[in-house]
Protein: Queuosine 5'-phosphate N-glycosylase/hydrolase
Organism: Rhodotorula graminis
Amino acid sequence: MTGLPPAESLFAAIRESCAACTARSSISIDGQAIDTFISGIKQEDWTPSNHGLRMPLAFESVEDELNVLATLALLNFLSGYRYVLHRMARSRRYSTILSTVLAAYLSSPDSLLSTTGMIGASAAQLASLARISTHTERQHESLPVTVGVKDDEALEVLELLAGVLQQTGAALRAAGHESLGAWVHESLVAAEGNAGAFVHDLASTFPAFRDVHVVDGEPVYLFKKALWLATVVSLRFKGENVSFQVPAVVGTPVFADNVLPTLLVHRGILSLSSSTDPALAALSLAKPDTLLLSSDSATRLRAAAVT
């Protein structure tokens, strides 16, 4: 397992490893295109969107709200399954995960969001919360009846989610915490507003937040979910009377999954045509079949977005 840089140099390591990966991959960044894009954003369009994440619920405690936010961050992956999720739930990937987490919170005190609930998470339980069917109907080949057929793609997605929850629940039990929200609250108090310390704590404790990859024999640090959580907590609780300092996130690296790189390619900010990675050199937003990338290629593209 690739080790983590020290907390005090974590953000520098993210930038340096991503810049090195981008250079090795011969991905070009057009500074003029960046200026054009930024200057084209109207202030009235940006300001209303810069509000953080407020849930449509009255939480009983700050810890409960942290629990929901942290679990949302935990399950905020599956970018490569967005079409499958849309087919299954008839909604966007993020909306599906959000509604599932909120349904879990509302279901019962000993829900999926507790340490015990996470450890016992199952595909069937998640299917019920997300209102996803694990079977499809089709006409029988030789009889005038409709039969149910197992939806392998749906089950794969649900098993991935259940696996992450089980793994995280085990880590929480080992740390002696009753929920992810309780752990996050303690970590925020200890970090004293240091976003690097908080992100490092997340990544060193929970494998699902350890967004580290080895490409061309070199580590690439991204920590998308941990950075997302630090930013959301900072925006949500800034100015609130809470028992912790909100993470200072000004100047932190961006959190990149597949969405940001796609935008940057679309805007001409990232140029992939000369990349040494054949899959990236051939990538075209107009050709969906070229968007299915290997882990290494996807990491190179995400690193370029961070750079």
